[in-house]
Every structure is written in structure tokens, then in C-alpha cells.
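EI: anyone free to look at a 279-residue chain?
SC: sure, send it
EI:
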Amino acid sequence: MELKELPAELASFVEHALASGTYPSADALVADAVRVLRDQEAGRTARPHTPDTPAPTDVTTSTPDDLVRAIRQALEAGEAGRARQLALEGAQRYPAHAELHHYARVLAPPTTRVVPASPASRASVKANGAWLHTHRTAYSGRWVALRDGAEPKARLVLRVVLEGLTTQAMVDTGGLYLFCMPSVARALNLDTTQALGAQTILFRDERVRGTLHRLTLTLLAEEGEDMQLDVTAFVPDASYENVPELPSILGLHGCLERVRFAFDPATDTFYFGPASPAV
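SC: here you go
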């Protein structure tokens, strides 16, 4: 099965599931998914004929507890519209019932209001528009975050040593492996013949093909002790050169998953230590 045949979000899910070892192959994952779909279809077909199927709830004759149960059942069945209707009508009929009012407030339709824009926010929007106009070709087809007409700098950037090379890396807890930027990979002179294997991952909404390597990463401490890790690193193929130069990226799976860490945004301080004394 070719991942390129799947939508991007499904391809990313398959890649993460295979990388975690939950499934031995893409075929096994697809087979499991088909079984779940089959069971769902069987349940959907059988549901109207089962004696356990709940009858439509009549708000005028139901107790508050009956309505709460019906709301929960509707939510579990994915019937958000029905749950909203029951919550709003139930709260109106039983104005003193706290749980019904809670559901009514949470499930109520969204509200809108016009608020005055500040001069600073207007200026920021105009600056962002100007940036997009200037860089529309270079960033075509890519997601980009802007603030006041510029890309905000990643705050969680660390000084690290990678196989003896001192460099920078930013933390991405939703990332996979240590994503080694092309310039860093070239400086390390990594031998593709010694790679653990090839893999394609989703990065910045683009499928990137590369190779996996086992590298030694050292987190440098300003206070206390440094921490050395043996991590799985993803190195993009040589063809992947058309990206703005970024720090390498420390993902969670395959890299930081055995590290206990915290971040204080007030002081831009990254705290780290081993996940257990045995690590």
C-alpha cells in the first residue's frame, strides 16, 4: 500500500502507528481498520431492530435525570444536534436543574459580537498582509505563522551537541524523531549506507523522504548536569533543500520520550532530566 494514495492526515496517522510498533505493517493496520468499519456497519444496520434502542425522548414527560441520560446517549452516538435540542428544552423546562443548565450552556449555538479593533491590531493585520504579498511565491503551498509582519521566532530553542557538533534545536512535542536539517546532516558527513532504513514522514504539510540514523544527542545545561541521549534521527534526502533554514527539531517519539522535561514560558527556561534513575 502506497502512503501517497492516502490524504495527508491519514498518511501521517499510518506513519505514526507503524513507527510506534502498534502494527507490524501497513497491511495489518488496514485490515484492522476494515474490521472496525465492518463492525460499525453491522451495528448501524442492527440498531433499529434491537430492543435496547432508546425510544425518542419526550421532554414534556421526562424527568431531569431521563433528559441527562438522553443527552449523554445522543453525544455518544454523534448526534450533536439532538443533544443540543434536548439540553436547551430541558433547561427551559427545569430551570433549577444544574446539570441540564450546564449541558445547555456548553452545547448552546455559538454567539457572535462586534468588538472594536485597536490601532495596533489593525497595523499587525496590514503588516501580515504585506508580508504574505512579498513572500507569496517562496511560501506557496506552505503553512506559515505571522506576527506583526514577521515569522515569530521559536521560543523553545536549545543549544545541543549532535555527534560532537554544537548546534541549535527546537522542541516539538508533536514531532517524530530528531529531524536533522540538511545543513547539519552535511556537516556530520552521515553515511547513507549505514542508515537504519528509509522512511517518509509528513513535515510542514509535505511528505519528505529520508533515512533513519542512530545519533548521540547531548542537551547542554546552564545549571546542573548535561544529558546525553542515543536517539533516532531522520535525515531528509539530498533533494530536500528547498526549505528555509531552521534549527533541527527534537520530536517526542524516538527522541525526547525518555526525558522528563518542563518549560517555563515566563523565563524561557527549559528544565530536563532522566525519566527514571534507570535511564
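EI: Helices lie at 8-20, 26-46, 64-76, 80-93, 98-107, 119-134, 182-188.
SC: 👍
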